[in-house]
Design brief:
Strand content: 15-25%
InterPro entries: Prot_inh_I78
Number of strands: 3
Order of helices and strands: HEEE
Largest sheet: 3 strands, mixed
Distance between the termini: 50 Å
Protein name: Peptidase inhibitor I78 family protein
Strand order of the largest sheet: 1-2-3
CATH topology: Trypsin Inhibitor V, Chain A
Length: about 100
């Protein structure tokens, strides 16, 4: 009987957690968090990944594609371009 109660409580908790909707991250850094200058490249959002070939960026840059392994260290000045599965620039952020 006790085991049944414990399992019921856990299921109720997990069910409640599953209803939360996640808000997507912003497409480019907000001004207060733009330590890498990413907002100046906001016009690249929605462009094909090869649009990056036309832009000269002299700082540290990382291009991330679906399935890429990403290190978790934080570097304030590193500019990240996130590419979606269709080869489109989906997001720009600092880390």
């Amino acid at each position: 009987m006790r085991r049944f109660s414990f399992v019921s409580v856990i299921c109720a908790i997990l069910t409640g957690c599953g209803t939360t909707e996640l808000t997507p991250p912003p497409a480019f850094p907000e001004e207060a968090y733009d330590t890498c200058g990413g907002s100046q490249y906001a016009d690249l959002i929605g462009q094909p990944d090869y649009a990056l070939e036309k832009v000269l960026i002299l700082d540290e840059v990382r291009i991330l594609r679906p399935g890429d392994i990403v290190t978790m260290e934080y570097r304030m000045r590193r500019l990240n371009f996130e590419i979606d599965e269709n080869g489109i620039i989906d997001r720009i952020y600092c880390s």
